[in-house]
Every structure is written in C-alpha cells, then in structure tokens.
Write a structure and sequence with these properties.
Helices cover 14% and strands 42% of the residues. By secondary structure, it is mainly β.
Length: 176
C-alpha cells in the first residue's frame, strides 16, 4: 500500500511540476499553447518581409531564461535587415544570405504583431510549426521560454490557432 502511494505521489509530482523546457505562445494575454523545446535547441520565427516580399528566418536559442538570436537567414537585405558590424558573420548560402553567431540577447519574451496571411508569420520548434497569420493577423502573439509540466505538454502542446480562414501561401512558396 505504501509503495503504491509513493508511486502515485511521484507520478503526480512529475505530471504537475514544471520540469520541461518549452515555449509558451500567448495571444492577447490568453495562452495559445506550449511547444516542447529541448535544452540548447533553436526555434525559428519565420515571415515574409513586408517591403521586399522575400522570406526571413530568425533562429533563436533560450539561454538562462533569455531569448538570444543565434542567426538569421534572408534572401536580400530589406528595410531594417542586414548585417550589423560586430554582430556575427555573414556568408552566402545558395539563394540565401546567412548571418551566424549573432549572440543578440532580446530579453525574456518576443512579441510578434502578426502580419496578414501574405506575411506568413510562423513559429517552429521541435519539428512543430505554428502558422500565425491565417487566424491571428493584427493580433499580438508573445513567445516566451517556460518550464512546462508533463500535463501541459501532453494536453496543451498543439498551439495551432483555430479559424475558418484558409492558409494563403506566398508566391515564393508555390511548389515547382
């Protein structure tokens, strides 16, 4: 009996204690869900630049509870984009320009003002992609590192926004 109680107590603790690294996505102060994130694993915020209409990918790492931009991939330097002197190194990678080793600390959360479907804001972690633009255009989505419980990761790990709006792909994503 005592062993069963001990096993039950341990199982309850594992299920309810915030042990696992994750990203919490919230929209307008309401929780959208969690994405599991292994220690040291990068996650990506992707979108299409509003002026030059070319894709951009920001690779971000969680370090000691802070978000740190590790690298950026872009097709060309648009407004507000490009390599800053003393911040990482740039190199060509096929059609992409990659800026690596940026090490830019951006704080404990990133707030995204989600663009229209053509902007195609996405957050990707652990092979799970959350498409924000089809349902959440003009809304504020906050991405922040947290420790999640096992229950949160089991039952709150599909932060896909639900909506009736079809996903609109940017012409650059059209299959060849």
């Amino acid at each position: 009996m005592a062993a069963a109680l001990l096993v039950g107590a341990v199982a309850t603790a594992v299920a309810t204690l915030p042990l696992w690294p994750a990203l919490r996505l919230s929209v307008d102060e309401d929780r959208l869900g969690h994405l599991p994130l292994a220690e040291g694993e990068l996650f990506t915020i992707s979108y299409v630049h509003s002026i030059d209409h070319l894709p951009i990918e920001e690779y971000i790492e969680v370090r000691d509870g802070n978000l740190v931009v590790d690298s950026t991939r872009l097709r060309q330097f648009g407004a507000g984009m490009g390599h800053r002197p003393g911040e990482g190194t740039g190199r060509a990678d096929g059609e992409w320009w990659v800026i690596e080793d940026m090490d830019r600390d951006i704080g404990t959360e990133v707030a995204i003002r989600v663009g229209a479907p053509s902007v195609d804001h996405r957050v990707t972690a652990s092979d799970t992609e959350v498409r924000l633009s089809p349902c959440l255009a003009s809304r504020r989505v906050v991405v922040e590192p947290v420790r999640a419980t096992t229950l949160q990761l089991l039952f709150d790990s599909d932060p896909q926004p639900e909506c009736d709006t079809p996903i609109t792909r940017h012409p650059s994503e059209t299959p060849q």
